[in-house]
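Our consortium's second objective concerns turning raw sequence data into structural hypotheses that experimental partners can test. To show how far this objective has progressed, the report includes one record in full. It was chosen at random from the queue rather than selected for favorable results. The single chain below, 287 residues long, was entered without modification.
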Amino acid sequence: MKYIAIDFETATSAYYSPCALGIVEFNNIGFVKTEYFLIKPPDNYYSDSNIRVHRITPDDTKDAPTFDLLWDKIKHYFDDSIIFVHNAVFDISVLKSTLDYYKISQPSFKYCDTKGINYIPKSEKVSQSLDALCRYFDIPLEHHHALSDAKAAASLAMIAMNKHIETLIQYRAKSLDNIAVKRESSAFGKNTKISDIKGKEISIVDNRFSGKTIVITGNLSMMTREQAFAKIISFGGNPVNSVTSKTDLLVNAENKTSTKTKAAEVLQKAGHQIKIVSDEEFMKMLS
């Protein structure tokens, strides 16, 4: 059984947008091998809020491989291993979602969240955050650098092993099925406002949405709402948040009844030419 620690950084709030990956193979004595990869996310698109967290930019990854091309080089780490991560809900969701995005079969491994292991007596009241635990155990950490975070997770796992709680780690190890992936992560705070997107310099690719006012409700399956806003602008359209009589297109991403879909249906009955499309139909419009 191999012990592997990993950490992802993402370009946007979408789980399928990894831009960096740190991998550490280790045992109870020390590190066996470490690797760091930059990854080109879909469309090499980044949210400003994510850049502020990890300081990776589109220029850094413009020539990097996409995840599907990198996978052949790293997939051996995940076969019959226990993968250690700190805050598994995020990193395992990134892995599952990205594998799904690129239609790659999921490997066979179990994972263990180093955030959930009791290293310290509760009476000491030390936070389970990665930076707090690293300060307590004097583990070097450059937080939000993928390799540094992976090394920290591996170091915490080694501490647990050397405290003779490896049995607990084995017991806590879970399968991928234990993580239910949401469409977008809220790990980096609130979504960027449309005004922030419109303030960027976005090149007009063509005019397929020229003069069209477009609203999105729900989370899209293949991109963040922020990415979609940028795409709409690049095609000459005008993304807005609210449905009004000026709305030409409403994208109902999750095929649910929302305040926006109700407003669009009322306007349709009043004679306004508002088209409502599904997530799949919208992706075809963008392709």
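The partners drew two points from this record. Residues 146-162 form the longest helix (17 residues). Residues 194-286 form a domain with the Rossmann fold fold (CATH 3.40.50.10190). Both points have been shared with the crystallography group to help prioritize constructs.
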